[in-house]
Design brief:
44% of the residues lie in helices and 25% in strands. The strands form three sheets. The protein has a six-stranded mixed beta sheet with strand order 4-3-5-10-6-9, sandwiched between helices. Strands 1-2 form a two-stranded antiparallel ribbon. With 301 residues, it is of the alpha/beta class. It has helices at residues 4-16, 19-26, 30-44, 60-85, 103-117, 130-138, 180-186, 206-215, 229-237, 281-300; strands spanning 49-52, 55-58, 92-98, 121-127, 144-150, 161-174, 195-199, 221-226, 243-246, 258-274. The longest helix is centred in the N-terminal third of the chain and has 26 residues, at 60-85. It contains ten helices and ten strands. Helix 5 (103-117) links the parallel strand 3 (92-98) and strand 4 (121-127). The chain is globular and about 70 Å long.
Length: 301
């Protein structure tokens, strides 16, 4: 019988293509990954990978094994969930990831509710962007995550994961008050020659600035960067330029900077989880709590 841990290493190699990436993912050395995969090849009796330049590709036998691995991992978790569901008590450990702007509005209220309703459940919260939380769910480092996707960008979830929509978070333009009337009358095109503020390179929200400006017919002149939405709003407050952020991120003290919403621009907030874990009582309880707490936000959107 094949070792499930080695099968998982092969599955992750199929996705990430290098020993280094897999070693970082699992917290072991690249040589240890290589050794485990060599042992797996010996067990199978077939070559599972071939090198193409700096990356490793799976052979046909390797792809067949990875396809079965996904089903094996899902079946094992379904078994664990079924056993857990046989107990009336919601116990164990539940780890939930959340992105920063959802922490106060969603994650913390959910944890408070679960702690009150299920005192035997140990709860853990992790601050992760969706780009990081999706792999963490797949690797079973977290059980579920509050995630988002932008309306103007597609998103494909890895096999075995599912996402449930909770509510929509509109994108809004933050600008000094003296610009508000001109913007509302003529649109974002009046801002083509002003300085723009954005997130750092690599941050998902950077795409929202480029999307809105492209829709208005120009490319933004980005002069200032910040690692937080609050920092971006502070820059607008001090007259350094304009920016676009999710409405949920706007603090009360900055509400006067909101000039308008962005046409066709919205951040869809949801909960993402492994399909095989859905029968697990702790996961089901967390999703139910998220639905309940998100309902007023859904109606508002």
């Amino acid at each position: 019988m094949y070792d499930i841990r080695r099968l998982v290493l092969l599955r992750d190699l199929a996705e990430h293509a290098t020993m280094t990436a897999v070693s970082e993912l699992h917290g072991i050395t690249a040589s240890a990954v290589s050794q485990q995969l060599r042992i797996l090849e010996d067990e199978v009796g077939l070559v599972l990978t071939r090198r193409e330049g700096r990356v490793l590709r799976l052979t046909h036998a390797g792809r067949v094994l990875v396809d079965h691995t996904s089903r094996i991992v899902a079946a094992l978790e379904e078994a664990e969930s079924a056993v857990a569901a046989s107990s009336e008590a919601v116990t164990g450990v539940l780890t939930m990831a959340t992105f920063r702007t959802a922490q106060m509005r969603l994650a913390l209220p959910v944890l408070v509710r679960l702690r009150g309703e299920h005192p035997g459940l140990r709860l853990r919260l992790v601050d992760l962007r969706p780009v990081d939380s999706i792999p963490a769910i797949r690797q079973q480092d977290v059980d579920l995550a509050i995630t988002y996707s932008y309306s103007f960008r597609g998103r494909d979830l890895p096999m075995g994961l599912a996402s449930e929509y909770l509510f929509s978070d509109p994108l809004v333009l933050l600008a000094p008050p003296q610009w508000r009337e001109r913007i509302r009358e003529h649109g974002l095109g009046v801002l083509r020659d002003v300085d723009w503020i954005s997130a750092l390179d690599g941050e998902p929200s950077l795409a929202s600035v480029h999307f809105a400006c492209r829709e208005a017919g120009f490319a933004p002149r980005i002069e200032h960067r910040s690692s937080s939405f609050d920092g971006m709003a502070e820059m607008v407050e001090h007259g350094l330029g304009v920016t676009i952020v999710p409405e949920m991120s706007v603090a009360e003290r900055h509400s006067g900077l909101v000039a308008c919403t962005v046409d066709n621009g919205v951040r869809h907030v949801g909960v993402t989880y492994r399909q095989a874990s859905l029968e697990r009582p702790a996961v089901a309880a967390a999703i139910a709590a998220l639905r309940s707490i998100a309902q007023p936000l859904r109606l508002a959107s």
